[in-house]
Write a structure and sequence with these properties.
The complex is a heterodimer.
Chain A lengths: L2 H35 L2 E2 L5 E2 L5 H4 L5 H32 L2 H12 L6 H12 L4 H7 L11 H25 L3 H9 L4 H12 L1 H16 L3 H6 L7 H11 L3 H29 L9
Antiparallel strand pairs in A: 1-2
Helix pairs in contact in A: 1-13, 3-7, 3-10, 3-12, 7-10, 8-9, 10-13, 12-13
Chain B lengths: L12 H13 L4 H8 L1 H11 L16 E6 L6 H11 L2 E6 L3 H10 L6 E2 L6 H6 L21 H4 L3 E2 L2 E2 L2 E13 L10 H9 L6 E3 L3 H11 L9 H14 L3 E4 L4 H6 L4 E5 H10 L3 E4 L5 E8 L8 H12 L1 H11 L6 H6 L2 H4 L8 H4 L2 E3 L2 H5 L1 H12 L1
Parallel strand pairs in B: 1-2, 1-3, 7-8, 7-9, 11-12
Antiparallel strand pairs in B: 4-5, 6-9, 6-10, 6-11
The chains are: A mainly alpha, B alpha/beta.
Chain lengths: 286, 387
């Protein structure tokens, strides 16, 4: 066997498990969703075979849910980013090295508990017997936190913060400290060093974190349901209702396809933007 | 030598992180990781708690060692299942659902794994039509006595003369109100929505369930709970959109919010109303005088039930009046079975939440299958929730 052929064979063998996995659990289900989206709702719910674009024509019926998602998901990801960056910066550049692992572990460990349980805990913390009761005890007027958009945002930031901190932390940790010294030697203030060196070089980490959180938020339904009292309606909630309540599978499938399309477009745009901002260097997002 | 709390620990923080990172690098096995960190033991304990470990078999394993049922929140006396497991060795996994549509969707998708479930009256004909449930073999249910059943509540268990489901209990859909917070008397769906928009603003809940939320909004105008007429539904939608900014939540899980005091007013099913009133006497359960919904929940066995022998055994256990009576005491819903009513304590039989006066029951309607599956009502609900 020639060495080139051998190399190709090894590559193919290495890629085969992932390819089979993706084909079975991503490509095939997605094909099924596309087929469903061209069908009709059976009279008692479910799917009836058909070949129609009616479901796609009906997409404006969920315009509000799409709009809520497209506003709140980037806002949530941005809030995560603004809170996560100082934490990651501290972890990567400021903290004593012997404490660093412990602190990283403290950020990761809550992830071992189900998001559902952690979000449910917030229902009680924010509910009348939680923080509001404490505030009344110290003499403040009656307040309500649960089932407000603010509670949803809090839940989102709490739930997804580690996903934002870790990629930024990694990109900052790899940062070549000599660049910071060089910048200082050349007369830059710490302020301008941060903006023209540190921030720029951590951009790939920021975009990775932003994309990770954004993708998850685009499909989010649990947090708005539990902390928003079912009044904050994301596209994820519309999907759950269409599959589990009104059982309009074809329309739900059409929305799922549209959501995937929106996600892909947003990611491509984010990728472009990162490439441009970080100076045409090759950047791998995920 | 100084003593520290760390001395007794099996693993120091540093060692734990080392192991964690080695595990993540793949240089130690999962088994070793679970062993040294103690997480394996924790998982094994949890698995035992949740019935993942083999249980002692009964009658040479004829019934298997586990089964799964789908039912409603706060709906059973937990002791019922414990007793059944002790008697038969069959561990019961309980899945709790928020709506009939969700149950239907799971069964329609297949592979639910349930051997027994608790559908409401208006879904049974649909399940039968979709061929998702088995006709019941009464020979395997000696504890069921058709003659003892009140026919008003049991009729929908039969589809085209074939018995497909037997009743668990009946009930009504009214509303629960915290009378300490909302003192004005309320007796109608009109008052429910009017209070929700005024004194109860920010403290009121409607179900995350189109059948009841739209049905009760229809009753505000005196229309049928089951109306599918576009102009009547438009009026109901107008009312719901008007009330939405005042709502505390759109959720069928209203007990926690009513108990904590977050919510003062909610659409409510009999059994929840009875439980709330029992624990917090100032929470009253009210039936709208315009009417509203009356319902029966049934037990049925899915066609693809993985453990039918255990399903029949459990169903027969539940049909035993001595067992059923404890179920009714626990969940606070009235019984369809005269044998059970004879055993119920007098205070339950006299409880107007469970057994309302005849004049309040008369105008109530059973939900219809078409009401549940109507696409226009589903879209109305989606517009209401996303508004």
């Amino acid at each position: 066997m020639s060495s080139a052929a051998r190399k190709r064979l090894v590559t193919a063998l290495l890629l085969a498990p992932a390819a089979v996995w993706l084909f079975l659990f991503l490509v095939l289900p997605f094909a099924a969703i596309v087929v469903f989206s061209l069908g009709e709702r059976a009279p008692a719910g479910g799917y009836a075979p058909a070949l129609t674009l009616a479901q796609y024509a009906n997409l404006p019926a969920r315009a509000t849910a799409f709009w809520n998602t497209l506003v709140l998901a980037p806002a949530g990801a941005l809030a995560c980013l603004l809170i996560a960056y100082p934490v990651a910066y501290y972890l990567a550049l400021k903290v004593l090295p012997q404490r660093r692992l412990l602190l990283v572990a403290l950020i990761v460990i809550p992830f071992w508990t189900s998001l559902l349980i952690r979000t449910y805990a917030w229902m009680y913390i924010l509910g009348a017997r939680g923080i509001p009761a404490f505030l009344e005890l110290v003499g403040l007027p009656e307040m309500r936190f649960i089932n407000t958009p603010g509670a949803v945002l809090l839940g989102i930031v709490y739930g997804y913060l580690p996903l934002m901190i870790l990629p930024i932390y990694i990109s900052l940790e790899r940062l070549d400290r000599r660049l910071l010294e060089a910048s200082a030697d050349l007369g830059a203030t710490p302020f301008s060093t941060f903006f023209s060196v540190t921030l720029r070089l951590s951009l790939p980490g920021m975009m990775t974190g932003f994309s990770l959180v954004l993708i998850l938020l685009l499909g989010e339904y649990l947090i708005p349901t539990l902390l928003g009292g079912g009044k904050v309606f994301f596209i994820g909630n519309a999907l759950v209702d269409l599959f589990l309540q009104s059982r309009n599978w074809p329309f739900g499938s059409a929305i799922a396809v549209a959501l995937v399309a929106i996600t892909v477009v947003l990611l491509l745009a984010a990728n472009r933007l990162t490439a441009r901002l970080s100076g045409a260097r090759q950047v791998d997002l995920l | 030598m100084s003593k520290s709390y760390r001395d007794g620990l099996p693993l120091s923080a540093r060692e734990f992180i080392d192991q964690l990172l080695r595990f993540r690098r793949g240089s130690i096995s999962r088994r070793h990781f679970l062993g040294v960190t103690g997480l394996g033991a924790a998982t094994a304990v949890l698995a035992g708690e949740f019935g993942l470990k083999p249980m002692p078999a009964f009658a040479a394993g004829e019934l298997g060692d586990r089964m799964s049922i789908a039912t409603w929140p706060n709906y059973h006396d937990p002791q019922t299942f414990v007793d059944f497991t002790t008697k038969t060795g069959v561990a019961i996994e309980v899945n709790v659902f928020g709506s009939n549509e969700e149950m239907l969707a799971k069964l329609q998708a297949g592979g639910s794994g349930w051997s027994l479930f608790v559908p409401t009256n208006y879904t049974i004909s649909t399940y039968r039509q979709l061929d998702l449930i088995d006709p019941l073999d009464l020979a395997k249910l000696p504890n069921y006595d058709a003659a003892a059943q009140n026919k008003r509540f049991t009729a929908e268990g039969e589809v085209a003369g074939v018995l497909c489901a037997v009743p668990k209990n009946w009930g009504t859909t009214g509303f629960a109100v915290n009378t300490k917070k909302l003192t004005a008397p309320m007796d109608s769906w009109k008052s429910f929505f009017d209070v929700a928009m005024t004194t109860g603003s920010g403290r009121s809940m409607v179900h995350d369930y189109q059948l009841t939320t739209i049905g009760n909004a229809l009753k505000y105008y005196g229309y049928s709970f089951n109306s599918l007429k576009p102009d009547e539904l438009a009026k109901a939608e107008e009312l719901l959109l008007k009330v939405k900014p005042h709502l505390f939540a759109i959720s069928s899980d209203y007990q926690p919010a009513m108990r904590s005091g977050d919510a003062w007013l909610t659409m409510c099913w009999t059994n929840d109303g009875a439980q709330l009133h029992r624990d917090i006497p100032e929470i009253n359960y009210v039936l709208g005088k315009e009417g509203g919904e009356i319902w029966t929940d049934f037990y049925a066995i899915p066609k693809d039930a993985p453990n039918k022998p255990a399903a029949y055994a459990l169903l027969n256990h539940l049909m035993d009046p001595k067992v059923a009576v404890k179920e009714h005491i626990a969940n606070g819903a009235p019984s369809t079975d005269a044998r059970v009513n004879a055993l119920l304590p007098k205070d339950l039989l006299d409880n107007p939440i469970l057994y309302p006066a005849a004049d309040l029951l008369a105008p109530l309607e059973f939900g219809a299958a078409a009401t549940l599956t109507d696409p226009n009502r589903a879209e109305l609900m989606a517009r209401f929730k996303s508004a």
